[in-house]
Amino acid sequence: ETGVTQTPRHLVMGMTNKKSLKCEQHLGHNAMYWYKQSAKKPLELMFVYNFKEQTENNSVPSRFSPECPNSSHLFLHLHTLQPEDSALYLCASSQVAGISGANVLTFGAGSRLTVL
Amino acid sequence: AQSVTQLGSHVSVSEGALVLLRCNYSSSVPPYLFWYVQYPNQGLQLLLKYTTGATLVKGINGFEAEFKKSETSFHLTKPSAHMSDAAEYFCAVSAQNSGYALNFGKGTSLLVTP
Q1: Fewest Cβ atoms nearer than 10 Å: which of A3, A21, A76, B13?
Q2: Any chain A CB within 8 A of the CB of B86?
Q3: How many angstroms separate the Cα of B84 from the Cα of each of A64, B18, B41?
Q4: What is the pLDDT of residue A55?
Q5: Can you give the pLDDT at residue B100?
Q6: pLDDT score at B59
Q7: Given an 8 Å threshold on Cβ–Cβ distance, is A90 in contact with B100?
Q8: Helix, strand, coil percentages, rounded to 5, for chain A
Q9: How many whole angstroms separate alpha carbon A51 and alpha carbon B5?
Q10: Got the DSSP string for B24-70?
């Protein structure tokens, strides 16, 4: 496997279900991200992990819970979601050096979530 | 904070015609600018980036973009469109010490007609 792998690619869940999205990067990067992509809206940054430490949480509802057990894996735990949470969830990784903001993100193919 | 605005949510060109996708940025500090492309059912792929130095940046698949500070723009161009260029294009911005993540525009869908 190479690059950034996301599973599952498609997920349908009810509002009372608990599910998780998984992301794995094989690039040796030290930062990982979750973005939400909804129709007709800009990509929304949800969470950032740098060296396994969460560095950003952009006011994401608590029904989304991230977990980063190591620098290669990132999870997004989903609980009691709403239909408006239906979207494409993109994982990305990057190699962050120093304090520069010019790091390049490598994206996975995304997990398409539908909440019924 | 930094932000970008992409002008035109849909652009249609004929095969062989010039491609021009517009992006304007807002940043109080020198920005880093990126263009990404997204093909159907795929993630985003980096086309090119501007950090410092030469303002004309060349990327993959024949695309290039020019950083114009006076116009706060970073428009993406390609001299001759190919059918395979049909995709969604995203402009993004970050800046030194602004954190690691990028702020994206809403995207421009490029349609290439025969």
Answers
A1: A3
A2: no
A3: 36, 14, 15
A4: 73
A5: 67
A6: 95
A7: no
A8: 5, 55, 40
A9: 31
A10: EEE-SS-EEEEEEEE-TTS-EEEEEEE-SS-SEEE-GGG-EEEEEGG
